[in-house]
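question for whoever is on the cluster today: can someone run the full assembly for these? two chains, 970 residues total. i dont have access anymore since they changed the login thing
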Amino acid sequence: MNLNDITSHLSTARTEYQSNTPSVYGSFVAPFFLPQHNLLNIAHSVSLEGGRGCGKTMYVRYFSHWTQFDPNRNDVSKENLSTIILYWKPDTAYCRGMSKSWLSEKNANQFFLTLMSLELLKEFTSSISNIGYHFEKIIKNIEESEQFWSAIKDITQTDIHSFVELNNWITTNLFIVQSSINSNDISRVVNIDPKAMFAMLVPIVKSCSELISQTKIKIFVDEFENLADYQQQLINNYRKHSDSNLIWNVAHKSLANISTQTSGDEQLQDPDDYRAIRLDKLYFDVNKSMSEEYELLSSEILILSLQRAGLECNVKLLSPVIIGEEKSIGMRQETQYKNEIFEITKKILPNPSEKELARIALEDTSALKVIKNRFKEISGYSQKDINNLVEQNPEIIVTAWAVYNQKNFSIADIESYIDASLKSKHPFYDKIHTYLYASLLKLNSRSVNTNIPVYAGFNRFCTISKGNIRHFMELCYHSLVQKAYEYKDDISSVNEFPEIDYVCMQRGAISASEHAVKEIPTFNPYGMKLSSIVKRLGDLFSLAQAGENQSEPEKNHFYIDAHYGAITDEIDEIIQAAKSWKVFIEYHGTKDKKPNSSALTEYQLNPIYAPKYGITYRKKRRLVFTIKEFNTICFGEAIEYQQLRDKIVSTYDVEEEQKQGRLNI
Amino acid sequence: MIEMEDWIYSELDAFTNRINQKKYDVAFIGEKTNLDDRSIWAKEYLHLQSEKVNKVTFDIDASELKVGDNSYNIRSYENINIFSGQVLIDATTLSIPELIYLFLIAKIKKQSFDLLYLEPSEYSASNEVDGDFVTKNFSLSEDGKGIIPLPLFNYPINNRKIAVALGFEGHRFGALLQSDEYNESSIASLFGVPPFYLGWERYSFDKNEKHLNEILKYRADSIKVAGANDPYLNYQVLKKIYKSEAARIQVEAINLAAFGTKPVAVALAWFAVNNDNVGVLYDFPNKKEKRSEGHGKVHLWSFTA
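^ ran it for u. tokens below:
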């Protein structure tokens, strides 16, 4: 296949989870934390939380009967029957539309509970049918159980004797529910309470076969946060009173506005009534350094999607089936396997070192001229010596260009660094370590024609995506699209996949970033506001980085300098929304902070937005805003923002052309 | 059924020259009548032409239609008596929820009415430099409540075709796709061509390009074209989609969402009250002040019930 076919496959794969059955067999990569957070084994009710794109839905679907008893599996054993997870993703817009103010409390409750019962009954029959693929006897016994059909008759008030009839009955009654809602007439709607329904059915089904006599049933309600409050409360009633036969669980976006209230006066408490599993923290804890686990997982997912697009792969362990199994985890932690995987991904997405980036920077004639002139001015070196430096140590000369007017800068330092054979324990080494990357960003922002690939490389993609697999795949996808413009050869295996050039990755990262920024206005209900805040912060961070006279160059996070109590509700609400949509990533700061000060909390602009604004994706230095300034960034009119910007520009000593930068934000 | 009987489409001057007497007994207008030049004009026109002018808003939280000083829960829409004599409804200032309920009440009460709409001469926008080209950054509305089906028009999303009227605010369409419930393959988009002014179609294309690309992957015919100021033609397009859906899912059914021009929203509201099994989704954006400028052409549609 050629690269175009592969990218178009990757592109549709991004949305295919919507249309197929809920089974993720062959497309799930078992994360290493799976054994500790196996949804099948956890005895209490769970609330599975995570940001957008962290894979909540996939995680639940993996444990659901759809994947555990997928008809294509040939490794299902009796042990799999110990727990059966039913998965319910409600049609949340439809449910939210069933408001009490329109339908009355009584009717709204009945419509919702009946809808939930019908859909869960359908899910229950699907689970029986999926199990039947592997244990024919079980489904046969249930089909022959008079007790079962008699219970079904009690529930449906209809004589039903087969699963086909039952499913038809469900479809008909779902249709009656929808037409009755709009005429607000409950007379034709069956009245079923889901808990009572399961209380009746589960013991009967369990008695049909020894194999399932000890089985536990769990129900997972996905997208819980998008249900109306009263609907969440109805489900909370069931969560509060889960028993060992039937455990109710929910999955929702972290930090979303969710109700912990039941319909009565009771309150749900973590950990008494449920345990929260914070999925994105498990995949990637932002307060820890980059984990090898995340790098491995993203590699595996990239290779797996290339395989699913039709390419071969010669790493045996990395097959769509094996990699989704818990038992593969041990083997995947072995060094040899990891090396093999990293070798493939790093070959596809090579990672230029900063020194290499400095060399690339000096291939740009306009950058080279500026840097050479400046260096000549400050060092008095001959043209020949400077050329040597450009040739041998591009990292030194590029760094010097950016830091020459710092107080402690001296040419002698550079000379002693070279004399010491570039030893890492030298002060100038530290300077390079701190300032080289920032110098490269600054060079890029100087001229639209300079495009040093500062975002290129597998490791950088991992840091930019920060635990968000969807973002990682977007970065790869857009890079592949760039490569596909020029590369037309046939590709048959992952191992012979062409190397993506730095420049393609750079353009790909910018393009993925632009897409991510364009998506922000769609984040309900504060999308427009968040979009304007990101534009303004992107602008301020890029100004901060362009300044001439600063000692702290890479900025992409901030804190608000105020007493906690002084943060207004309005600002707090926006910050919560930004966190919930992962527009901001929250950190708990440690240094030089007063207790009870909001400075203890720092917010990083999600690094996926960095390439669009040409700023750093690394969390290095921060900006500080007063409440008033931050309020202007969030809510200020264009003119007020312009004043704030002007004030900031004057403190940074930004070059004139960059001052004019972005208009109308 | 309500049907369109007549359609006057005129330059504003020619239209206003014909004002000579109070032609209507009661007129209905949106709550915000100082948003822009045309809503100010609409307010003045209604007061000149009608004995009585009532403000109408729909409060989704309370499910209440507020007409003048009275509030009515929409669940009892059959008992809402607000019409008498000759009726004028202003579509310039009213949004789709109010229009749809006014149409519904007119249908039940067999009340004929005229519907007024004034096009703008411009929408407020700033230029935005995006890479190599300059595009328009329209500033028409602020964040709303998120997408909610309207009472009386609430149907499931799954497996249903949704017809989306597109305009300059691509993010509102994007927000719909964002919630995973709406499958790209189930979307038919109504694209307003010709637009109010030739050339404007490129803005709606530009603002929706990303999402259009997504839905085009599934069906090449998922973009339907009908004039941005032509409710009649848009109605016919909806009818076609609705009928063709019956072949697929054995029942005539569709969901509608309006993010485009008002004349297309009129078509959606009109279609929804005339047909069974039609869902309507709306995101309740907060319209910005000075969202448009100037006066364009004026439409007066006459409907009979």
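summary bc i know u wont read the tokens: The first helix of chain A runs from residue 3 to 16. Confidence is low (pLDDT under 50) at residues 659-665 of chain A.
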